[in-house]
Structures are given as structure tokens and as C-alpha cells.
């Protein structure tokens, strides 16, 4: 005969949820810190060309982007299907590039201005005529440090 008797079913104590808000806030803080927001809304379709010899930019805060490509479907009724230039979040003409470069230069510190890079993100199917026009405007505005964005060529 046993010394201890089982008198009935014992209730399982409820799970403590006291630390649940701490866990939720830790996860929220983690995702807020690790997520980066897109700086520009793309209005042009860009498929970057492939390249074999690439180098990574060190300071992306010094880079100003000029996007060139065919407008997205929702903008084609207004702007057509010919390649267009996008500066920040709006379409622009070649003549607007000088003002854009000057505004970007003024937004930087005095010490960072000589290190400013203009990166061209051009669709691989875009004709070189528009790229040459952009380069001429960049020369006129003394933006001589130009970078062409591309993607790494995959060996098969």
C-alpha cells in the first residue's frame, strides 16, 4: 500500500504571459533597426546590364542616382514608352540635370562635395544617345565622378 494517495486530477497552472510584451517590443525594435526604407520610388523599369569587373562603393551616402529606362506601365499612357530620365521621385529632361546636381551638391557638407559620386542606373536596352546627353550635362555641372551601376555576371 502506498503512503501517498492520488486524490484526484491536479490542475495545470496557466502559462504566465507577463514577459510577452517584452518579447513583442524586442522583436519590434529588432525589425525597426534592421529594416531599411527605400529612398526612391522607381518610376522607370530598370534591368541593369551584366559586368565582370565590379567594385563596391564605399560610402553610399555620397552617391546621387540618375535612373534611365522605360516608364512603368502606369506611366506609359502619359509619358510614352521611350526611355525617360528619373531624378529622385519625378521624371526630368536632360536640361534638369544641372539643377539636380547643384541641389545635391548643396545638400552635402563642404568637405564631402569633392567626393560626391553620380551613379547612372541605366536599363540594358537603353540607347547610348540619352546616356551621352546625360554625361554632357554632368560635365557642364562639373560632376566628373561618374559610376555605372551593373549586376555581377553569373558564370554558367
Automatic annotation (TrEMBL):
Membrane topology annotation: Single-pass membrane protein; Single-pass type II membrane protein
Superkingdom, taxonomy of origin: Bacteria
A UniProt-annotated Pfam family: ExbD
GO MF annotation terms: transmembrane transporter activity
Subcellular location: Cell membrane
Keywords: Cell membrane, Membrane, Protein transport, Transmembrane, Transmembrane helix, Transport
A single GO BP: protein transport
TM annotation in the entry: 12-33
Keyword Translocase belongs to the record: no
Cleaved signal peptide residues: none
Full protein name: Biopolymer transport protein ExbD
Species the sequence originates in: Tangfeifania diversioriginum
Amino acid at each position: 500500500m502506498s503512503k501517498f494517495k492520488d486524490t484526484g486530477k491536479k490542475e495545470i497552472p496557466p502559462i504566465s504571459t507577463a514577459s510577452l510584451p517584452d518579447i513583442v517590443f524586442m522583436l519590434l525594435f529588432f525589425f525597426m533597426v534592421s529594416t531599411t526604407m527605400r529612398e526612391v520610388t522607381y518610376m522607370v523599369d530598370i534591368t541593369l546590364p551584366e559586368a565582370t569587373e565590379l567594385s563596391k562603393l564605399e560610402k553610399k551616402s555620397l552617391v546621387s542616382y540618375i535612373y534611365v529606362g522605360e516608364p512603368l506601365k502606369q506611366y506609359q499612357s502619359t509619358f510614352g514608352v521611350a526611355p525617360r530620365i528619373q531624378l529622385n521621385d519625378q521624371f526630368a529632361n536632360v536640361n534638369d540635370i544641372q539643377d539636380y546636381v547643384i541641389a545635391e551638391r548643396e545638400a552635402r557638407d563642404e568637405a564631402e562635395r569633392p567626393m560626391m559620386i553620380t551613379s547612372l542606373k541605366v536599363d540594358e536596352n537603353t540607347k547610348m544617345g540619352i546616356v551621352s546627353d546625360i554625361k554632357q550635362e554632368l560635365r557642364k555641372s562639373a560632376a566628373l565622378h561618374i559610376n555605372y551601376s551593373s549586376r555581377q555576371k553569373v558564370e554558367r
